[in-house]
Write a structure and sequence with these properties.
By secondary structure, the protein is of the alpha/beta class. The protein has helices spanning 17-26, 39-51, 71-86, 127-144, 156-166, 180-188, 205-213, 243-254, 258-273, 327-334, 355-367, 380-384, 408-415, 422-436, 452-462; strands at residues 2-6, 31-35, 55-59, 94-95, 100-101, 110-119, 148-153, 171-173, 192-195, 219-221, 284-287, 290-293, 313-314, 317-318, 343-345, 372-376, 398-402, 439-445, 465-469. The protein has 15 helices and 19 strands. The relative contact order is 0.08.
């Protein structure tokens, strides 16, 4: 995992900082970002990043300290940030015995400007001075093309307005405490939403609902150590190793495994802060206890809502293929099918474009005692110019077909299919599937202009379930 926000440079860690860092590494943390919020903190954060290969730093002036924001202060911040921009740090190896770097880099690894923003709860600095310091640091981050780490407390309108006017489009809303509207507007501007320890508190129902609904590609986690210790450790000093408790709680909220939260948030941290290596394209990817097969990126629809048009990633997995995998490669990726609840044909393309491969793999999976689910857009019969559904009998246990509209006109607008009369063929495909596949369901995405009740009427007449998918949004 990656703790994207903590304050290891603070006095609270003076007595045992090295031991805290060792515990974080033992707990499995891949990286830690320690956050500067005043000049002393920025200097400490940068020094830590020099001494530990997996620790990165940010530099900025917190709204509490905006009253001390002078040209000299700003120049010091610029000096820290410019060092990072002039040269990348050398790669160093971590020594697990000592808990430190074997060959510490001489170059600070400053990856963002922050913690900056507005705090109208404590008002430790006059609000107009907070806004001025915030704006100046935002513009500096934009000039350097660095992300920003935003603190916003009881300052929703001014925070969103200033961010919009600045033109900054990459950053994170740290330790999010706003409402659903703020989360959606921040995401709409391209900002990540970071969840900290308060999500585990019993009285945090509003935050918990927001955390449950944040789209995967905008989710980050943090400890904000030494503050905001999560349950069940609340009451003592927080530290990066406790990120595991936040991840575990989030996994429960979102109905996934902790390894899914780990993978999703680590990928997002790497993308935002430009640290570490991004994953290569995967032909088989695990979500919860199912294995998904990404056998092609080709598709016969260009659905307006399709995730592949704005990201290569699904739940932290890279689904962008350089080439289509062979049957042998897919079998190797699957291993023993019985270890999974089911094997699902579901990637960035339409699996039935590779019908022969699908049939052969399905038969092999069934022979090995596995269970098969096929997700399809329902164009298989048009693609192959025959009724292929009987060929799936006995080798596919369940099938999910994308209906996505209540009539042909809406389907053409939403799904933009390659074939004419595709909607009628989808209806026919679903009808045929009920004759040969034990478990059949249709799906529809909740979009403006799509009549869900009419879609349900269609599936009710066929005697199948309708699954309604929501567009990624917090609420």
């Amino acid at each position: 995992m990656i703790d994207t926000h903590c304050h290891l440079e603070m006095d609270a860690f003076d007595k045992d900082r090295h031991e805290v860092i060792k515990r974080a590494r033992v707990a499995g943390l891949e990286a830690i970002i320690t956050i500067g919020s005043d000049i002393k903190g920025c200097k400490g954060a940068v020094e830590l990043s020099m001494n530990y290969d997996f620790i990165y730093a940010t530099v900025g002036i917190h709204p509490h300290d905006a009253k001390d924001f002078t040209e000299e202060t700003f120049n010091q911040i610029k000096s820290f940030a410019r060092t990072r921009r002039e040269s990348e740090s050398d790669e160093v190896n971590f020594d697990p015995r000592s808990g430190s770097a074997c060959n510490a880099s001489p170059i600070p690894k400053v990856v963002a400007i922050g913690e900056i923003g507005l705090d109208y709860h404590y008002d430790l600095s006059p609000r107009h001075i907070q806004r001025d310091a915030f704006i100046r640091q935002l513009h500096y981050a934009k000039n350097l093309d660095l992300p920003v780490v935003i603190h916003s407390r009881e300052a929703k309108d001014d925070t969103l307005r200033i961010l919009t006017e600045s033109g900054v489009k990459k950053g994170v809303m740290h330790c999010f405490s706003g409402d659903t509207d703020m989360a959606n507007k921040a995401i709409g501007m391209g900002f990540f939403i970071s969840i900290a320890g308060p999500v585990t508190f019993k009285n945090a129902r509003g935050l918990q609902e927001i955390a449950r609904r944040i789209p995967d590609e905008y989710l980050l986690i943090e400890t904000d150590a030494p503050y905001l210790t999560p349950e069940p450790l609340r009451g003592g000093r927080n530290e990066p190793a406790f990120i595991v408790h936040i991840a575990q709680y989030l996994a429960g909220l979102r109905g996934v495994l902790i390894e899914d939260i780990d993978r999703i948030t680590s990928l997002n941290a790497k993308r935002l802060f430009n640290i570490g290596k991004l994953p290569e394209g995967e032909v088989a990817y695990k979500i919860r206890d199912s294995l998904y097969l990404n056998i092609t990126n080709r598709c016969t629809s260009c659905c307006t809502f399709c995730v592949r048009f704005h990201t290569d990633y699904v739940k932290g997995h890279n689904l962008k293929l350089e080439g289509e995998p062979t049957e042998k490669e897919l079998k190797q990726a699957i291993g023993d099918p019985v270890q999974y609840k089911e094997i699902v044909f579901c990637g960035y393309g339409e699996p039935l474009l590779r019908l022969d491969t699908v049939k052969s793999l399905c038969a092999w999976i069934k022979e090995k005692g596995g269970r098969v689910r096929l997700n399809t857009n329902g164009h298989g019969n048009i693609i192959h110019k025959r009724n292929i559904v009987p060929e799936l009998q006995g080798i596919v246990d369940s099938i999910s077909v994308s209906l996505n509209a209540h009539d042909e006109e809406t389907y053409e607008r939403v799904c933009r299919p390659t074939f004419k009369s595709a909607y009628k063929e989808v209806i026919t495909f679903i009808s045929e599937a009920t004759k040969y596949i034990p478990d059949v369901q249709a799906t529809v995405v909740e979009l403006e202009g799509v009549d869900i009740s009419k879609c349900r009427d269609i599936t009710d007449k066929m005697g199948i379930k309708l699954r309604i998918r929501k567009l990624d949004a917090v609420g």
